[in-house]
## 1
Amino acid sequence: MRILGLSAPVFRILAICCLISFTSIYVSRSVLFGPSIPKASGLRVPFSFSGPIIEPPEVSAGDRPRVLVTGGAGFIGSHTVVELIGAGYAVTILDNLVNSSPESVARVRKLVDAPEAISFVRGDVRDEGVLSRVLSSARHVAIIHFAALKAVGESISRPLDYYENNLGGLTTVLAAAKAYSIKQIVFSSSATVYGNAQPPFTEATTVGMGITNPYGQTKYIAEIILKDFNLANPSIAIACLRYFNPVGAHASGSIGEDPQGIPNNIMPLCVPTLHDTPIQEFPAHLTPVFAPPPRSVQRVAVGKYPKLTVHGSDYDTPDGTAQRDYIHVVDLAKGHVKAIKFLSKRVAAGVGGTEVVNLGTGSAVSVLELVKAFEKASGKTIPYTLGPRRPGDVPAVWADPAKANTLLGWVAEKNIDDMAADSWRWVSNNPEGYATTQQ
């Protein structure tokens, strides 16, 4: 009897050799990279990024518990890494640098007292192989998942990218957490999940109604995924943090917000003319509900944009402009550390489950109040015009942060003047963001 032109004995020998080779490869992979991460079913849009993976350095973090921070080179992520190191943790940053810079990691290392406790890997959270290499390189006790696309306007024109990246990234991270027995997960959610609900928002406020963009939808769906995952894995403790409007920068002026392309926030567009050539007029309201983009203020102040257009001046608010709950990014970062400590206690007590927590100040600040605060901080005039309302905008949005106070022991400490002063220091020191060479 012949099989594929080979005699039966020869075919059996080749089959055995193939089986031995396959087993050897699988065992070697398991030893080198740890257990395989189950892939989520469904369509997966290919991802890409340029540049090599930067492996975690061979350093000793002592007895520091290690946390994986996805998107840790970004605005909120970089500030959170600073606070984590200050609180005694070691950190592995995983970031594909699509909307961030390796310079932020370098500067964070200069700010902290234990730079050797920070490892950096350039890679995409949707890559199971990269996650396996990261999580098998050292024992991680927790994951803080920031990595996601976050521009509201862009999400409307690129919805599939947002759904695939934000939700595909989350499911891959959750599969990795399960495969490597990581019991603490902090997820970066958003107040956009409240849609058109009426403030003040508590964690019991209805979510998912009136969300006007794919970005907000991905956060809403992500929260559903987290709860379903937790039902199937009840020993895992999850904190889902709903942010309101992060602004500000580190007090040193070394790290801050530096998104690629047109900014999505009002503060950076407000920053008076260090440059002589205006680029374009930029609206103070980009998103339908959580609209005033803080980064906008900075860009106007340094002359990158000639003026703001404040959409809506006839709302039922003290000055007629929309009000939002702005929170300093350092306060927000400290909230993540509080969440990790809370989850650690729960896991130690054998308690899992998901907690949803608002991170906001509980105070509403109007667009014009924000502009005035930035004028005070910069000593410059921010030119603006008043425009009509935009469809979907609401007069006021703010959080009820009572649960964060009682459950996490967290309270926002910085006010709008602090936010403006730190934003101005960052943009003054770094007019070109991380492309600015530090002296």
## 2
Amino acid sequence: MISKKEVRMSTEIAELMPERLSDKTRTPTPAEIEVFIGVEAQHQLAALEGQLAARYDLSRELRFPFGKDYGWGYKFSHKSAHLLYVFFARGVLVATLQIGDAQVAKLEVALPGLSLKAQQLWKNRYPCGKQGGWIHYEIDTDDDLSDVLALVAIRKKPARP
């Protein structure tokens, strides 16, 4: 059963989110995705995917997993292990990943080396489990990209360093 607090938090998160590709009945084409996210986000997506592919046996699926508030995005996996979602927002990418209870201690060791933005996102995470949670990280800079890659590595150790 979802608590009233969780419903409020979910609603607050959705209200802060930028415009998404949210029509589930129409799968966006690669060209539509590129136009929607813009040139800078296209470069960030290519860089993220390249870095992930260098570290993991990467697969990518276009998915609509959580409804219209999140919209369409790529699900990235290493073999059968889910790594993260990257949702398409107007002019920006939003990386969504879960840090489970088993990974919290490892995250807390790494957190001081991450940006203040990453630290705040963790502090304000959407709770999941006893200590874990979901982070919705807007990728605006190369530093953001580094943070997201570090968070993914906490979630799943890279197959290749």
## 3
Amino acid sequence: MKFYTLILSLLTFSFFSYSQEYKAVSNKNSVKQVIQKQHSATKSLSADFTEEIHSTLFTKPMKGNGSLLYKQADKIRWENSSAKQIILLNGSKVKMSDNGKSISDPMTNKIVKKIQGMMLSMLSGDFLNEKDFSIAYYENNNLYKLILTPKNQRMAKYLQKIELQFTKQTLLLWQMKMFESKDQQLVYIFSNTKVNTAINESKFNQF
């Protein structure tokens, strides 16, 4: 279950912001362009996150927290502090640790490598080309919300949709929701996001 949770995590304001209704944007291309511009300018990124896993398997949401590091074009450090798990993605290399112990599982590595492409697509902005997802654009006063629906039928079997929310002020990702079904979803809220600060290369090679 621990690595099931970890793999799902790789594939995610104020009350006023939550309570506002969304409407379809009037100019999809203009929103796409400004978000893409921000992604293109992001050479590195660091952020904290909170995690909630909603499932019929649990009587209440499972909660966690951690941190994310990203560096163009293919480096990610995903650290779940609550579960004491770390995943390092550096080009084609994948490293994982669980409670301080390195994990070498060919099947898990294979799954993570497949999800790696999706993760990098989200962080780099490549998802905006709509190659793998169809995208619907919505907005309220403070946020843009993009709803991504998988085009690939195999992907659609385990991922119903992804909802991404970007603040209008910074155009950075604030919330990500991943829906396996209407009853099972993974919710991330990102905070303390810093862009284009120096990140030591060792963060993507060493636990």
